[in-house]
Structure formats: structure tokens, C-alpha cells
Specification:
eight-stranded mixed beta sheet; globular; 31% helix; 2 domains; 21% strand; TIM Barrel; five-stranded parallel beta sheet; Urease, subunit C, domain 1
Length: 436
């Protein structure tokens, strides 16, 4: 048994918060008791009807730190199989645990792609060896080619929690429509990367001030807007669960806002880097701030924050995208897009959203746990007796310097910054998987 004493609990599912003692049954991996602060251990054990004694309970005094449901990130790249020099499932899971995440959903743009039962089984089995919950999407199309749909029904039955060709947009409208119909029958969401390649000259950099600085064409906002507009229309017609990934423009935020008024099937995610940075970062930090979709203008950043505040954007997802230092050292037009984000997500949410008054701590926790869990139908994102003992303990005021990642990669524009919010414990299935 494990007892977390004197923690400030935040449960976005019930809205309950306050100082609580939480007793964890490590044998079952469940929360045994949630009790008022200072409840005697014997009383907790008696209420749980166990033969244990106070001497058999491991006690951790949290000294008022926050206790939240383990975070859930539904958009990560662990590069395994095929690109394990960047990251693998083991190192990605360690990075997630250090950031307070107990559940992650992997994207399927691996090599081979997750378009077949064998690769799906490989990813799922390796994920079971990590200590956290590692789920994966399967591809929408074979080989991410956008031409032929995968056997979505079979992949769903074998454990795929959703479908995506993330990194590559689905350009065939009829193919997307059929994919949405089939995903709906499987009760699984489709998550879409929304950038029309026909409108992009050089990806990863906004077609504005940043592109002009580098003397390249860049990626215009219309590349995202046009795809979001089309795909929301189709999803509304098909009444299928659709998630707009890593939204980057104010126009796309408004399109989602209006679509959500018409249907409960529309979802959207925002990354910490898109609600924190603008294209100025791409000018200052070069390839370390190159990503798809790119960082855009201040008006877009503020629109994303407003979308998070008013519920238009349901969840925060990192789009954790590791690359090697050698790859990121290439010229701006050659280096791959993407940054890592699992270990800085909580801190950026606290600094940019909570401390600046846009979200309460409870609301931030909800967007990092309960909301993404609901979209993918995961048993996560809440704290309840009998519920999963997946918890994150953190000090929102304590600061740390961004350095020395658990990830294989270090491609982050936040390296060297001092950020608030230090994760001290990550507990998954009742076991401590990270402790600072």
C-alpha cells in the first residue's frame, strides 16, 4: 500500500479540489481511499477493509504539492520502429513519465507504418514494457500514401485506439469520407494533420516575417485554413469524431468554434509551443523552432489561448517530435520539422495559461488529462476511489532549468529557460515510475 499524505488534490472529472490523503492499493493498481487530510492510517485501512497495518504502508508526505490525474498526451512520436536514433518507445516513455504523463497515444508515421497487425502488435507489446500506458493509433491509409484505406475494423479490434496519417494530410475527399464512416463504426476518432502541400513552398516556417527573413516561401496560413474548412464540413455531414491536430491559425480556431456549435463530434488540440511562441522564435532559434504547422503571429497565439479558455480547443497535446542534433543542424530548408515537448508541457501551461490568468489550474489539468482521455475512450484523467492509480504530483511554484532531457533528443527552443512547475512523482498503476 502507498499513502500520499498532505497533497492538494485536483480532480477535473468531479471538480473536487482540496487537501486530501490518498491511499493506493498497489496490488490492484487502484485508488483505495481518498480521505480528508490527516485521516489516521488505521482508519483508512479499516475503511478499505484490508488486513494491512500502518507498518506495511509506505507513506509519502507531499507537503501541499498538487496531486492530479496522470497526464494524457494523445499526440506523440516515439519513432519506433524505423527511426530509433531519434527516440524509441522506452526513452519516449521515460520522457513522458518525467513530464507527468501516465498515458500517451503514439502517431503511426513509423517505418514500417502502423498499417498492419504485425507492426501494431510490436508497438503495443513494447509499450507494455515501459511502466506507463502506451497506446497507438493506426494509419488511415496504407503506407501513409493517401490512396487505399487500411483494414480499420481489424486494426481497431487488435487495439488501435484511433486513426491518423499525422504528418501527411488526406487530400482525397471521398477517401476521407469513407474513413470517417468506418472509424465511426469502430467508435474511434480520426485525427488530422491540416496542411495543404499544394500551397506550401517551404514547410516549417510561417509564410510571413519568418519566411521573409530566410528568403524562402514558407507555409501560408491558407494551407491550414482550407483543409480545416473542408474536413469539418465532411465530418459534420458524416457525424463522425474528428480531431483537428496542432491548430495554428486564428481562422481555424474560429472554424472549429462554429463547427462545435453544430455537433458534439468535433475536437481540437493545441500544442504548448503554439500557445507560447510566435514566428519570432523561428527567426531567433532557427531549426529548433521549425515545426509543422509553423509558429505564426501573435494574433494566432492569442486566438489559440482564447480557444483553450472558452472550450473551443478541448485538449493540450505536445506533438513530441524528437530529432537528432545532426538533423537539426542542417540548413532551415533541409532540417526536419518538430520539437520535443513532453517534459516542458506542464511548465509552459502553468506559465502561459495559469499564471497569466487564462485558465485555472483545474482547467489546465483537465485539458491535459480528462479531455484527451475522453476523446480516445481511455480509462484515465480522473481521481476516484476504485479508479486507476495514475497520478502526477507537482509543485507549481518551484522552478527548474530546461536541460538534461530523459528523451534521446534535445531539440527544444526552451533549452536554458527557467520554468515553473516541477514534477516530483509520476505514479502509474500504483507504481512510482518517476521520482525527482
Amino acid at each position: 500500500m502507498l499513502l500520499l499524505k498532505n497533497g492538494y488534490m485536483l480532480d477535473p472529472a468531479s471538480g473536487e479540489e482540496g487537501y486530501r490523503d490518498i491511499l493506493i492499493d498497489q496490488k490492484s493498481g487502484k485508488i483505495a481511499r481518498i480521505a480528508p487530510q490527516g485521516t489516521p492510517v488505521d482508519a483508512l485501512l479499516q475503511a478499505f477493509r484490508t488486513g494491512g497495518t500502518e507498518e506495511t504502508v509506505e507513506k509519502i508526505d507531499l507537503n501541499g504539492q498538487c496531486v492530479a490525474p496522470g497526464f494524457v498526451d494523445v499526440h506523440v512520436h516515439f519513432r519506433d520502429p524505423g527511426f530509433t536514433h531519434k527516440e524509441d518507445i522506452y526513452t519516449g516513455a521515460r520522457s513522458a513519465a518525467r513530464g507527468g504523463f501516465t498515458s500517451v497515444v503514439l502517431m503511426a508515421n513509423t517505418k514500417p507504418a502502423v498499417d498492419n497487425p504485425e507492426t501494431l502488435a510490436y508497438v503495443r507489446q513494447k509499450g507494455k514494457e515501459t511502466g506507463i500506458h502506451v497506446y497507438t493509433c493506426a494509419n488511415v491509409t496504407m503506407g501513409l500514401q493517401g490512396k487505399k484505406l487500411t483494414d480499420m475494423e481489424r486494426l481497431s479490434s487488435l487495439g488501435a485506439v484511433g486513426f491518423t496519417d499525422d504528418g501527411i494530410p488526406l487530400m482525397d475527399e471521398s477517401l476521407l469520407r469513407e474513413a470517417l464512416r468506418r472509424a465511426a463504426k469502430c467508435a474511434k476518432p480520426i485525427s488530422l494533420h491540416e496542411e495543404n502541400p499544394a500551397l506550401i513552398t517551404n514547410n516549417g516556417v510561417n509564410a510571413g516575417k519568418a519566411a521573409a527573413y530566410y528568403g524562402i516561401g514558407g507555409s501560408p496560413r491558407e494551407a491550414e485554413i482550407s483543409m480545416v474548412e473542408r474536413d469539418l464540413r465532411i465530418a459534420l455531414e458524416e457525424e463522425a469524431d474528428l480531431s483537428i491536430q496542432h491548430i495554428s491559425t486564428k481562422e481555424a480556431v474560429e472554424l472549429v468554434r462554429q463547427a462545435k456549435k453544430k455537433s458534439g463530434h468535433i475536437y481540437a488540440e493545441a500544442t504548448p509551443h503554439h500557445f507560447t511562441l510566435t514566428e519570432e522564435a523561428a527567426i531567433k532559434q532557427g531549426t529548433l523552432a521549425k515545426m509543422n504547422p509553423p509558429l505564426r503571429e501573435e494574433g494566432d497565439r492569442l486566438a489559440i489561448i482564447e480557444g483553450l479558455r472558452d472550450g473551443t480547443i478541448d485538449m493540450i497535446a505536445t506533438d513530441h517530435a524528437p530529432h537528432s542534433a545532426e538533423e537539426k543542424a542542417k540548413p532551415i530548408t533541409e532540417a526536419p520539422s518538430g520539437i520535443i515537448g513532453l517534459e516542458t508541457a506542464l511548465s509552459l501551461g502553468i506559465r502561459e495559461l495559469v499564471k497569466k490568468g487564462y485558465l485555472s489550474m483545474m482547467e489546465l489539468i483537465g485539458k491535459m488529462s480528462l479531455a484527451p482521455a475522453k476523446l480516445y475512450h481511455l480509462d484515465a484523467g480522473y481521481l476516484k476511489e476504485g479508479g486507476p492509480a495514475d497520478l502526477t504530483v507537482f509543485d507549481p511554484e518551484k522552478e527548474w532549468t530546461v536541460e538534461g532531457f530523459a528523451s534521446k533528443a534535445s531539440n527544444s527552443p526552451f533549452v536554458g529557460e527557467r520554468l515553473p512547475g516541477v514534477v516530483s512523482y509520476t505514479i502509474c498503476g500504483g507504481e512510482i515510475v518517476y521520482h525527482k
